[in-house]
């Protein structure tokens, strides 16, 4: 049995790395006594399958995690109640928004997600400056970016990764951008987007608002939020 969870990451916890978040989830799974499947070998670990890694310092409304569970008899896992059980076992700022059973045979989240939507702040920038840069980028046939891959400088045309790009208005520190950026085969990071817009732009607050997969020709989220989800109540020891 495989269960998919959707969770958010906001506030000070955004400064924890992807590896630290994985450890937090391992502890939360143990504290809720979920019948999780473990790997084999000298140091068995719970089988947790994360989606695309979120850069340290970035926030998110839409992170995903798949958990493999053992079959149970007599006391089945109440999947719809996992958000209220798990959230109190996680650090402040990580909230489980939805849970659902999915087919284990599906592509992994890292393979399935084809793009992400972002709210990106360009710090110390002017609206007219960013507006002109957005127009230039969208009108360009190609946008060349040099970045490192396995210790070597590689030059890529990143224009195909910009699915959409619009101004989001003035922010406390600068100007906001709404962007949908492709993730396959390598993807484009928010900081790299700012570089191709105007070299030297400083990244401010960044939030991933959606991740998208394509199924039967339609774009959809890996797990939409259920607006009727029950409120969170603690089941963890303090």
Written description of the protein model:
The protein is of the alpha+beta class and 238 residues long. Helices cover 18% and strands 37% of the residues. It folds into two domains: 2-106, Alpha-Beta Plaits, CATH 3.30.70.580; 111-220, Alpha-Beta Plaits. The chain has five helices and eleven strands; from the N terminus they run βαββαβαβαββββαββ. Strands 1, 2, 3, 4, 5, 8, 9, 10 and 11 form a nine-stranded mixed beta sheet that branches.
Strand content: 35-45%
What's the CATH topology label of the largest domain? Alpha-Beta Plaits
SS element count, helices:
5
Estimate nothing, just give the exact number of structural domains: 2
The CATH architecture of the largest domain can be given as 2-Layer Sandwich
Structural class: alpha+beta
Radius of gyration over C-alpha positions, nearest whole angstrom: 20 Å
The major pleated sheet works out as: 9 strands, mixed
Helix-strand string: EHEEHEHEHEEEEHEE
Distance between the termini: 29 Å
Helix content: 10-25%
Would you tell me the overall average pLDDT? 90
The poorly predicted ranges are 227-238
What best-fitting shape do the alpha-carbon axes yield? elongated
Please count the beta strands (DSSP E, at least 2 residues each).
11
Please report the first level of CATH classification, the CATH class of the largest domain.
Alpha Beta
């Amino acid at each position: 049995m495989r269960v998919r969870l959707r969770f958010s990451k906001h506030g000070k916890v955004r400064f924890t790395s992807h590896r630290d978040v994985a450890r937090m989830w391992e502890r939360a799974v143990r504290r809720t006594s979920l019948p999780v499947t473990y790997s084999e070998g000298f140091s068995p670990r719970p089988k947790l399958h994360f989606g695309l890694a979120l850069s340290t310092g970035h926030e998110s409304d839409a992170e995903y995690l798949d958990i493999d569970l053992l079959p149970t008899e007599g006391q089945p896992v109440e999947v719809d109640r996992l958000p209220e059980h798990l959230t109190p076992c996680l650090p402040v700022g990580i909230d489980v928004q939805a849970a659902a059973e999915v087919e284990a045979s599906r592509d992994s989240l890292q393979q399935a997600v084809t793009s992400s939507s972002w709210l990106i702040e360009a710090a110390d920038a002017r609206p007219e400056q960013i507006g002109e840069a957005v127009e230039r980028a969208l009108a360009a046939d190609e946008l060349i970016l040099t970045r490192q891959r396995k210790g070597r400088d590689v030059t890529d045309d990143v224009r195909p990764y910009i699915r959409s790009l619009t101004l989001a208005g003035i922010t406390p520190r600068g100007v906001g951008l709404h962007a949908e950026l492709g993730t396959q085969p390598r993807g484009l990071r928010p900081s790299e987007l700012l570089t191709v817009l105007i070299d030297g732009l400083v990244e401010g607050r960044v939030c991933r608002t959606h991740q998208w997969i394509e199924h039967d020709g339609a774009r959809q989220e890996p797990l939409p939020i259920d607006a009727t989800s029950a409120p969170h109540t603690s089941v963890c020891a303090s």
